[in-house]
Each structure stands twice: as C-alpha cells, then as structure tokens.
Amino acid sequence: xxxxxxxxxxxxxxxxxxxxxxxxxxxxxxxxxxxxxxxxxxxxxxxxxxxxxxxxxxxxxxxxxxxxxxxxxxxxxxxxxxxxxxxxxxxxxxxxxxxxxxxxxxxxxxxxxxxxxxxxxxxxxxx
Length: 127
What we know:
Layout: H1 2-15, E1 28-34, E2 39-47, E3 53-61, H2 64-76, H3 82-86, H4 90-96, H5 104-126
Antiparallel strand pairs: 1-2, 2-3
C-alpha cells in the first residue's frame, strides 16, 4: 500500500536524516521557523562555480513531515541550478514525498526547507 511505504520512508528520513548538520564555509546560511507549529530549520549550502547546488545540510527541530522533507530535499537539489530550485514549489515537494497531497496544515511544514533554500539563493543573488 503506497501510504504505508510513504509513512515508512518519511519515518526513515526523520529518524536518520541525510545531510544533517552545519556546512562549514557555506554560501547560504538561513534560519527559518514555522510559527504555526514551532518547526525550526537552519539550512546551509554551498554552490559550485556554475551556481549549482554542490552540497546542502540542515539542522533543526520539528514534526516528521518538516524534518523528513528537509532530509529528502538535501538529496533532491544537489546538482540543480539556482533557477531550477527557485522554480520549485509544493507540487515538487509532494512528488518528492511520494506523490501524496498534503493537507493545508502540513504545507508549511513540508516546504520549510525549500523556503529556506530559496531565500538563501535569492540573498546570494543580490549580494
């Protein structure tokens, strides 16, 4: 059953998140929180010479959806160009999470890491 697989993969990423920690000498360093539920994220990333995502790491506290989606996102965006990441949205996150449709209450949780990364990319573009 897909929902069972979805739950198991989310729990795996929540219990054993990928790319957890702080990246030294990061080009992007953003802290965000979700005031609705109290999730927090500190996302750091490094860009390569062509502006592609070379490495992304995160740390934070929050619900299964926010932490698992952050873990999955750090794997998904490596190698992507700035424009590709800036163009990502909720449908991309839902696909990454196994094709599920998130309830309105979970959208901010699931997109917290993406919003942090996009904010950081915009800040580096302006610098």
